[in-house]
Amino acid sequence: MAEAYIVEAVRTAGGRRGGKLSGMHPADLGAESLNAIIERTGIDPAAVEDVIVGCVTQAGEQAFAFGRNVVLASALPDSVPAVTIDRQCGSSQQAVQFAAQAVMSGTQDMVIAAGVESMSRVPMLSNFALHKKEGIGIGPLSERIRARYGVEEFSQFMGAEMIARKYGFDRQTLDRFALESHRRAVAATEAGAFDREIVPVTVPTAEGSEVHRRDEGIRYDATLEGIGSVKLLREDGVISAANASQICDGSSAALIVSERALKAHNLTPIARIHNLTVTAGDPVIMLEEPIPATRRALRRAGMKIEDIDLYEVNEAFAPVPLAWLGEIGADPEKLNVNGGAIALGHPLGASGTKLMATLIHALRARGKRYGLQTMCEGGGIANVTIVEAL
């Protein structure tokens, strides 16, 4: 089978809700990452055969062939097609996998996988909540699904609480993990670890404009006491906004090409796709699926967790990566080494290619070889991608 290579992977710095990126239309925000791919690789924009854009809340400004609108807002010619996909939080990780599959099948040679989410301008869940408010439909779960699973809704918050109870995590354990996420993000930012992956974005200010290049959500003064003082999402629970991922605006992208394209366009790859896996399980607990998905990915790749040098496991909620660490027997020193979504933010549809950019650049900076990326996704799905840094 043909190989799929990653030539470049980039992301914008995260913007807090109502923060520096909130003034940008989501299509323009997505275009920033596409333009960076073109500029940094020097490719002929017309040679791109498709753009696959992950986006979770496809409503309002993120509706109406949104992926195509991202292309139309970019420096790509209008001859380049695009599609928008929703695999919940794994949308742009799936974009990477779809792009890689297209290249590996030989049907395409150059595809951009990308993701965009403006959670400030298109709030999470608004794509069905506004319909429900107006009396249009009953919501995403049909009566048949409700009867099958015995719930009125699938709740990621309840899923996180269920995982915490199942694996015996108390609040202090989760808060300590959250604090470490901030500490690692602070260290990475101050050391310039994100400089290579971040796309500077010029944003308007009261004084004119400024260049946004630093993740807004990092708490440089974070303490265990401060994190512990944040109100719990439910009185008898352990999850708070402080030990969960931050609402975030951002975009990201990666260029996936074939060996033929490498030669034809004189490109130098930074990574090779080593394994693509996606699995699904219990939609009620929902967020546990990265565990069996990782086991399957390692088995299919003929690898052990000890063979992996770094892992990015999305910090949707602190219990998710903690449970993954324990069940997989992974090394916590290799996990989210530059911090995760608790500190850096989780721009939903953009997080897949965002984590891929961070993972590949971290591997290369450390002279390491193999990286594994996974994340929990709505509906009890999980993607796992194993890459080899070059």
Q: What percent strand?
A: 15-25%
Oligomer: single chain
Unreliable stretches covering 5 or more consecutive residues: none
Q: What does the average pLDDT come to?
A: 97
Largest pleated sheet: 11 strands, mixed
Summed up, the helix count is 13
Instruction: Give the helices and strands as they follow along the chain.
Output: EEHEHEHEHHHHEEEHEHEHEHHHEE
Number of strands: 13
Radius of gyration: 20 Å
Shape: globular
Helix proportion: 25-40%
Give the distance, in angstroms, between the N- and C-terminal Cα atoms. 19 Å
Assign the structural class, choosing from mainly alpha, mainly beta, alpha/beta, alpha+beta, or little secondary structure: alpha/beta
Q: Could you characterize what this model shows?
A:
The structure is a single chain. With 390 residues, the protein is α/β, with parallel strands linked by helices. It is 35% helix and 21% strand. The protein has helices spanning 26-41, 66-72, 91-105, 126-133, 143-149, 156-167, 171-190, 224-228, 259-264, 290-301, 319-328, 341-344, 351-366, and strands at residues 5-12, 15-16, 50-54, 82-85, 110-118, 198-199, 201-205, 208-212, 248-257, 271-280, 310-313, 370-377, 381-389. Strands 1, 2, 3, 4, 5, 6, 9, 10, 11, 12 and 13 form an eleven-stranded mixed beta sheet that branches. Strands 7-8 form a two-stranded antiparallel ribbon. Strand 3 (50-54), helix 2 (66-72) and strand 4 (82-85) form a beta-alpha-beta unit. Helix 1 (26-41) packs across helix 2 and helix 3 crosses helix 13 (351-366). The model has no long low-confidence stretch (mean pLDDT 97).
